[in-house]
Amino acid sequence: MEQKISKIEKDYSEKIQKAQSLKELDGIFLALFGKNGELDLLPKEFSKLSPDERCRIGPLFNAVKQELEKTIEVRRNEIREQSYIKLVDEKLDLAETTQIKQRQGHLHLATQFKKEIIDLFENLGFYQFDAPHVEWDKYNFETLNIPKDHPSKDMWDTLYIDTSKLGVEPGQMLLRTHTSNFWSRLMEKGQTPIRAMSFDRCFRYEAVDARHSHTFNQFEIAVVGENITMANLKYLSDCLLKTILGEEAKSRFRPKYYPFVEPGVGIDSLCVFCHGKGCKICSGTGWFEIAGAGMIHPNVFKLTGQNPKKCTGLAWGFGPDRILMLKHGIEDIRYFLEGDLKFLQKY
Ligand SMILES: [Zn+2]
């Protein structure tokens, strides 16, 4: 037994000294102290020894065990120190990193589009007006001829703000569902004539998928003044469509209901992919809906303190994200909000 213990001590001391890595040392440690390791199995043989032998072997075994543990620890520290010295000596040549391809940043696709549209309408004499994202029901709905509890409110899936701690009645504060709050605010201010626009974010309580998002952009214009007619609406509509889709763009008006306009129109564009022949993108109809618009409802004039007999107005709005998807064949609206580099670099 004594010979066996001495042999283990000798063999393993040599192995520990020769070890060059922490991983190697871990292996040696397990071979000695792990389950079924040499020093784990050995005490099971002690029962065969006489009491005298046990008195001699016990302390020897313990001493060897402690010695080997200590040797492993010392060697572990030596190896750590050596790798640290290696690290300190290592040099990093920054010149080598110049091989990495340099990339130039650019504006987001939606921002480029926004700039293009804003430039066009600034040239037509429009100014930008930013309205709050967190809005009162009054400006998002009520003054736009959508009274409380009116069924037409169901046209918008609204995200309401929890106002329980603000001392505000529930349902009064919300995330605006459209950009139309900008012109209901302007009309209430009484700053007519109005020739304003807004390109900004809106929010709806939507289940997110490839075609729907809870956060999206809208572009809207509003004109209020004397003798504003459907002819102005048609002219501005064509101006915008030609800018977005090219000179050959054609539009048609269809009657459509929106509570804040009368008459209201849905604006279709001749499909730019099949030129009206019918394709997958326009679902075979030759047209696709691009915007909603109309003449501002007389009730909106009254609700904002204006006189509908003195002036008239028009409003025109569309979703730029959807148009960009059509134009560039982008299949998922979520790309607009995610910072996916592959998408950002492509456009
Ligand atoms: Zn088509």
From TrEMBL:
Annotated compartments? Cytoplasm
Q: Which GO terms describe its molecular function?
A: ATP binding; metal ion binding; phenylalanine-tRNA ligase activity; tRNA binding
Keyword entries, A-Z: Aminoacyl-tRNA synthetase, ATP-binding, Cytoplasm, Ligase, Magnesium, Metal-binding, Nucleotide-binding, Protein biosynthesis
| Cross-referenced InterPro entries | aa-tRNA-synth_II, aa-tRNA-synth_II/BPL/LPL, Phe-tRNA-synth_IIc_asu, Phe-tRNA_ligase_II_N, Phenylalanyl-tRNA_Synthase, tRNA-bd_arm
Q: Could you tell me the EC number(s) of this protein?
A: 6.1.1.20
Which transformation does this protein catalyse, written as a reaction?
tRNA(Phe) + L-phenylalanine + ATP = L-phenylalanyl-tRNA(Phe) + AMP + diphosphate + H(+)
Q: What class of enzyme is it?
A: ligase
The record, for Pfam families, names: Phe_tRNA-synt_N, tRNA-synt_2d
Q: What's in the GO CC field?
A: cytoplasm
For the biological process aspect of GO, one term held by this record is: phenylalanyl-tRNA aminoacylation
What domain of life does the native source organism fall in?
Bacteria
- Residue ranges annotated for the Aminoacyl-transfer RNA synthetases class-II family profile domain, each copy included: 111-326
Annotated protein name in UniProt: phenylalanine--tRNA ligase
